[in-house]
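Duplicate of #3305? Posting structure anyway:
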């Protein structure tokens, strides 16, 4: 089983065939984002999740700041839209 010392928040991994950044590890749950709010992946304790976690590969050459910047921009756009109502 992957441990918190193996995965680092802010690091990019290949999840479901695309680069995603690990954004949080909470109570055995691992949250990944592809830069779009509401998308990404949460992996946890299910046997299928364990298999994915154990086979994760680091996404080499991926700009993690760009992915996280896209996520932040999307969230800010939704907040601005909702505040304008």
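Output from current build:
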């Amino acid at each position: 089983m992957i441990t918190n010392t193996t995965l680092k928040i802010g690091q990019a991994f290949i999840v479901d065939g695309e680069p995603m950044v690990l954004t949080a590890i909470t109570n055995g749950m691992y949250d990944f984002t592809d830069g779009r709010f509401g998308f990404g992946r949460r992996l946890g304790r299910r046997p299928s999740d364990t298999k994915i976690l154990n086979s994760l590969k680091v996404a080499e050459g991926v700009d993690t700041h760009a992915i996280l910047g896209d996520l932040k921009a999307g969230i800010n756009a939704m907040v601005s839209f909702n505040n304008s109502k």
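Confirmed duplicate; merging threads. Strands lie at 12-15, 18-26, 29-33, 41-43, 57-58. The first strand starts at residue 12 and ends at 15.
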